[in-house]
Here is the input.
Amino acid sequence: MSDRIAVMNQGRIEQIDTPQQIYNHPDTLFVANFIGETNVIDVDLLNSNNKEDLLKEFSQIVKSDKKLVIRPEHLNLTSNSFLPNRISFEAKVKNVHFVGSKRVVECVSGSQEIIVNLPDEELLDHLDETLCLSVRKDLVRIL
Here is the structure.
């Protein structure tokens, strides 16, 4: 594999960086969606405490077109709606698929579909239940 790669969109370079940096810190929504699976989430799904915290840390989300970009493996499911240093929001579990070493959990929050990848050992028997999705703040990109 290369030391550095370029991601192009319609003949224009979107980002040049290491594969790890491009995956973990995409510069644009195109790059986030092009490299790996990702969730692009409207800020409106967050509860007011999360929005307040985010506004303090990320002033650029005041613009309504900004989205939270979260990789499915970074999300956790919990029944607790508030955890320190995490962003959380409610979602309903719609489907669970066994895929080798992981379970792919399809959730819906508002009108948005959200994918969560959980280790296979993590049992999930919450179909059609509303649970809390949470992610560490440092794993969220705002684009």
